[in-house]
């Protein structure tokens, strides 16, 4: 199957190494850079395994979801159980992600989107408010604190330093009731002040019963250079997200009628009857101060906070959460030396977060709140200190050593029915997360790299107090060591780029999702997990961008992810799962695409995703079938005048009309594993750009 998938279409765009579009005024192929460790640097020489999703890559997608763009990075898997309900995995972390993000640290500029309790509401973001995404794969606590999957660094609209004003209005509609409107501006009223603003509204009826969604999102970045060497910026995001959750189906139900919501049983009502869904109103805000104290020394400090009003009518209960989070992050960046001979850089800083969560569960009477079931208050606090030293010898050898000390604790109090008078403490031992890495430029176009790092990821508040309403104080933090080697190669004219890596991550005390008979989830430590993997991506401009001829540019390539993830010593009661495949992780994926540019501003884009079968339970007795997903988009872009451009686009998803489940419920009780993805569907829209 995998050979068929690779030969099905040898086309890819896994790393947007070379950016070009119809409205560019130059055909120069720029080298991709990444701001991974506080400074912009060429991806070729980066010591970490990484992927970059550029603005041009996002514009080639449908625009109503980040999912296809994330899935173009090897080792990354994003799933959608229903519109608005996403999961993001870096190298297997879907194992503990019922929805949302676990094991991964996410930042919006200098502000963590991952809160003190370990939760990340990535589905609050609208794709048009994102300018660029950098993904650092594998545990990296050197500058970012607790994680064992990796780090996602999101640059919002308004952070680009390109000159000139820009604005765009985009309207998009499609199958299953899809409608989306997006407005984005980047303006510079004066030489010292600039800002970006994005507003978006999106709705969809969904493919399945009880799967509609609505989201209104507002985002701004305000930047004030009050002196040439000092900048103060405000970052704010408000999102009102509402979506229904249809629930998992058994295999028989999935094949008989995949559009069904989870039906009722004699003992438990169904998802449609209970109006199961999520309402998430979140405000994220922060102030960042960046000061270039001298030519060698820079200081950055940020303070931030979030507030979330969350409600979740579920099959068995009606949950309401009130969450807040405050924190600060500060560091220094000192650089010295001569790049021609020897240069070095030193970083030191800290990050501190405190969060509170009030959780109340009630009976659910058809989407209406009933009597109290359980009410708890939880407080979480985490902070870490970090130092990093890097050295560069003759712009050829890069050496890095970094270390962070991570501290995590939470407190809990039962309000009902326990009526406890004080909080109980759960303190985790402070954990060191070292990272050592090298990158060597063998030739001016070929670089090798290796790294050793330790992963550490304590349980999140959503795992400590999951939907079964039981606080689990026995959960331990995941830990492990990651060993990695890799290489990157690019041609002198940057028309071709290849990136490969091999890694081995041995995890102890892996946190596993389980479900009770009612469908309520809980989590447990599973013992050892051995994760061996290989990732390869390649991209080639088969026809270099030009302004003559019938074909003005053609980019092809492919990326491949191979995952041999196995449970180590893992036993639950009398069941022995030792040696089984890791739940929820496909053994292989191949993501391929082609971008073609034609005269008159016409462009075409095709993406193919092959995903191998996926084990759905720890016993490996049930698998989701492999699938081929084909997407395409055609755009026509023309100038109305010197400053205003008009675009028309149409596209389609699942063009092969595959029957597949995207976002399976792993270890589901009663065999309710499957969340059917939409059949063949289409979209189209218009855009005005200034």
UniProtKB/TrEMBL annotation:
Pfam families, sorted: Plug, TonB_dep_Rec_b-barrel
Transmembrane as UniProt keyword: yes
PROSITE patterns: TONB_DEPENDENT_REC_3 (PS52016)
GO BP of this protein: siderophore transmembrane transport
Keywords, alphabetical: Cell outer membrane, Membrane, Signal, TonB box, Transmembrane, Transmembrane beta strand, Transport
Membrane topology field: Multi-pass membrane protein
GO molecular function, one term: siderophore uptake transmembrane transporter activity
Residue ranges occupied by any TonB-dependent receptor plug domain in the UniProt entry: 45-151
TonB-dependent receptor-like beta-barrel domain: residues covered: 223-655
Principal localisation: membrane
Compartments, as annotated in UniProt: Cell outer membrane
Keyword Transcription regulation: no
GO CC annotations on file: cell outer membrane
UniProt signal peptide: 1-19
Family: Belongs to the TonB-dependent receptor family.
Protein name per its UniProtKB record: Iron complex outermembrane recepter protein
């Amino acid at each position: 199957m995998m050979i068929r998938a690779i030969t099905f279409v040898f086309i890819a765009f896994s790393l947007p190494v070379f950016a070009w579009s119809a409205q560019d005024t130059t055909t120069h192929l720029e080298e991709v850079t990444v701001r991974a460790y506080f400074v912009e640097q060429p991806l070729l020489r980066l010591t970490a395994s990484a992927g970059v999703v550029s603005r041009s890559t996002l514009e080639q997608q449908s625009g109503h979801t980040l999912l296809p763009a994330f899935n173009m990075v090897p080792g990354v898997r994003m799933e959608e159980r229903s519109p608005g309900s996403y999961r993001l995995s870096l190298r297997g972390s879907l194992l503990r992600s019922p929805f949302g993000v676990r094991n991964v640290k996410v930042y919006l500029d200098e502000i963590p989107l991952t809160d003190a309790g370990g939760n990340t509401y990535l589905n609050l973001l609208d794709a048009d408010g994102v300018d660029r995404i950098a993904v650092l794969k594998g545990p990296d606590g050197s500058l970012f604190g607790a994680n064992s999957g990796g780090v996602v660094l999101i640059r919002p609209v308004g952070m680009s330093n390109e000159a000139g004003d820009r604005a765009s209005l985009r309207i998009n509609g499609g199958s299953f009731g899809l409608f989306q409107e997006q407005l984005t501006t980047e303006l510079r009223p004066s030489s010292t002040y600039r800002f970006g603003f994005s507003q978006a509204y999106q709705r969809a009826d969904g493919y399945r019963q009880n799967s509609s969604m609505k989201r209104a999102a507002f985002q701004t970045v305000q930047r004030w250079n009050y002196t040439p060497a000092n900048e103060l910026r405000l970052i704010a995001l408000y999102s009102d997200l509402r979506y229904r959750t249809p629930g998992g189906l058994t295999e028989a139900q999935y094949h008989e009628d995949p559009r069904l919501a989870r039906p009722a049983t004699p003992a438990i009502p169904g998802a449609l009857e209970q109006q199961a869904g999520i309402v998430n109103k979140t405000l994220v805000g922060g102030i960042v101060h960046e000061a270039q104290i001298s030519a060698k020394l820079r200081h950055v400090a940020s303070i931030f906070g979030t507030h979330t009003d969350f409600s979740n009518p579920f099959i068995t209960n009606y949950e309401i959460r009130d969450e807040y989070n405050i924190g600060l992050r500060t560091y220094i960046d000192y650089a010295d030396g001569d790049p021609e001979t020897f240069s070095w850089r030193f970083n030191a800083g800290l990050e501190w977060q405190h969060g509170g969560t009030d959780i109340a569960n009630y009976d659910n009477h058809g989407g209406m709140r009933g009597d109290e079931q359980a009410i708890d208050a939880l407080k979480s606090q985490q902070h870490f200190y970090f130092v990093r030293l890097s050295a560069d010898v003759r712009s050829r050898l890069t050496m890095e050593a970094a270390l962070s000390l991570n501290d995590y604790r939470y407190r809990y109090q039962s309000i009902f029915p326990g009526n406890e008078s004080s909080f109980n403490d759960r303190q985790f031992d402070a954990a060191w997360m070292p990272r050592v890495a090298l990158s060597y430029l063998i030739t001016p176009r070929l670089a090798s790299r290796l790294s050793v790092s330790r992963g550490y990821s304590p349980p999140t508040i959503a795992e400590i107090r999951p939907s079964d309403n039981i606080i689990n104080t026995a959960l331990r933090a995941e830990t492990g060591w990651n060993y990695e080697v890799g290489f990157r190669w690019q041609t002198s004219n940057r028309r071709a780029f290849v990136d490969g890596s091999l890694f081995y991550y041995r995890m102890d005390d892996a946190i596993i999702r389980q479900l009770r008979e009612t469908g309520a989830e809980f989590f447990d430590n599973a013992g050892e997990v051995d994760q061996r993997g290989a990732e390869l991506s390649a991209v080639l401009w088969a026809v270099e961008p030009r302004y003559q001829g019938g074909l003005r540019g053609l980019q092809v390539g492919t990326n491949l992810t191979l995952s041999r993830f196995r449970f180590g010593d893992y036993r639950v009661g009398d069941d022995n799962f030792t040696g089984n495949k890791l739940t929820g992780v496909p053994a292989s994926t191949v993501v391929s695409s082609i971008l073609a540019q034609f005269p008159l501003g016409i462009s075409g884009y095709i993406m193919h995703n092959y995903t191998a079968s996926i084990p759905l339970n720890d016993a490996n007795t049930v698998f989701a079938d492999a699938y081929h997903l084909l997407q395409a988009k055609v755009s026509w872009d023309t100038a109305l005048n010197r400053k205003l451009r008009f675009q028309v686009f149409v596209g389609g998803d699942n063009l092969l009309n595959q029957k597949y489940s995207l976002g399976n419920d792993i270890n589901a009780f009663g065999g309710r594993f499957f969340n059917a993805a939409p059949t063949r569907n289409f979209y189209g829209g218009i855009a005005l750009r200034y």
